[in-house]
Every structure is written in structure tokens, then in C-alpha cells.
Design a protein that fits this description.
195 residues; alpha/beta; Rossmann fold; six-stranded parallel sheet
């Protein structure tokens, strides 16, 4: 079945969750909610995509090499693995980003699958026109993925109950949501999911 809708789960990896190298506050509480969305999309045979940071050990993204962030989500490490409670189906399409030594790659639209195919190309192939987006973090990778999706003219739904922010400044989450809404995103929660 294909009604043009797909679920995008952004960076729900150990290093962004409790105890991780770059833990997002309260990240773990969205995982059961994400699992409900996954279940709904899976049962309706709709595509599910999951991005993950997949950094080399040396990258300008990290503080140690001139960047902003502590070392996190280095490829093939425990920190880069998905949170163990995230119930991704075997059919999930995995997308890797931040693999270059000098790239930040916050957006899912900078990610590629294992065959080096871009996210936008995959969505075009699947005839996807509408995305439902949740994950980590609202004020970074979720926001940039949503804004890029809107630039590509996708209809976008932000899953308010399935995303959490870093909040370096206390109002970063609110500002990010406001920016996304002004750009055309629709905000929803599981209760008003209609796929």
C-alpha cells in the first residue's frame, strides 16, 4: 500500500539518549511514543525511514577538531547504535549522515542509504509526498530535516509528542517549532494521527 505518506525517525541513537555523550534531556520518554507511530505505519505498510549520525572518529564536527560538539555517534560504536528500546522493523530504510571529515549534515536530506542513494531520491522513487517526522533533536536535526523537506515541497507533519530538543538556550525548542510552523509544517500528536 502506498498513499504517499512515510514516517521519518531522526537520530534516536544511544549517544543522544540518557547516559550518552551528547544526551538530549528527556530523550528516552519519546521512545514508547515513537514505537506507537512505528506500529501504525508498519501495520499500514507505509515506509519507515530512520536516520543516524555515522561520524568518522576525526571530523570538524567535533570540538576536538574545531567543531561545536563533543565526540558522539562514531560509526560502528555503541553510541551510534539505535536506542535498544526503539522497535524498528526489519524493513526500515536506514539513512546515514555526517560521514565526511568536514561536514555537519544535520538534515536527513544530507543522508544516504547503504547504496549511497540520497533521501530525496528514495522518496521520489517511493512516490512519497508527505512526511511525519519525530526524533532528536527538535532544535537541530529534526528542524533542519523538516525545513529541507518543505524546500523540496513535501507536506510535513511534526510529531510534537515524539521529539525532544537539546535546548542549549531554554527556549530553543519553542523557537525551532515556531520557525517550522511559520515555514509550513503541521504539528500533530499521536491522538490526531490520521494515515
Amino acid at each position: 500500500m502506498n498513499n504517499g505518506k512515510a514516517l521519518l525517525i531522526v537520530d534516536v541513537q544511544n549517544d543522544f539518549c540518557s547516559g550518552g555523550a551528547l544526551a538530549v534531556p528527556q530523550a528516552d520518554i519519546i521512545i514508547p511514543v515513537l514505537n506507537k507511530y512505528i506500529n501504525e505505519f508498519y501495520n499500514k505498510r507505509l515506509p519507515i525511514f530512520a536516520t543516524r549520525d555515522w561520524h568518522p572518529l576525526k571530523t570538524s564536527h567535533f570540538k576536538e577538531f574545531g567543531g561545536k560538539w563533543p565526540i558522539h555517534c562514531v560509526k560502528d560504536t555503541k553510541g551510534a547504535q539505535f536506542h535498544p528500546d526503539l522497535e524498528l522493523p526489519k524493513a526500515v530504510c536506514l539513512l546515514y549522515k555526517g560521514m565526511g571529515p568536514d561536514t555537519d549534515c544535520f538534515s536527513a536530506f544530507h543522508a544516504k542509504n547503504a547504496h549511497s542513494m540520497s533521501f530525496h531520491s528514495i522518496l521520489t522513487l517511493f512516490k512519497i509526498s508527505e512526511l511525519y517526522v519525530g526524533g532528536l533533536a527538535t532544535d537541530y536535526c529534526v528542524k533542519f530535516s523538516v525545513l529541507d523537506a518543505l524546500k523540496f515541497n513535501y507536506k510535513v507533519n511534526l510529531l510534537l509528542d515524539a521529539a525532544k530538543a537539546v535546548n542549549i538556550e531554554s527556549n530553543d525548542s519553542a523557537k525551532a517549532i515556531e520557525e517550522m510552523v511559520k515555514s509550513g509544517v503541521k504539528t500533530i500528536t499521536f491522538e490526531n494521527l490520521n494515515i
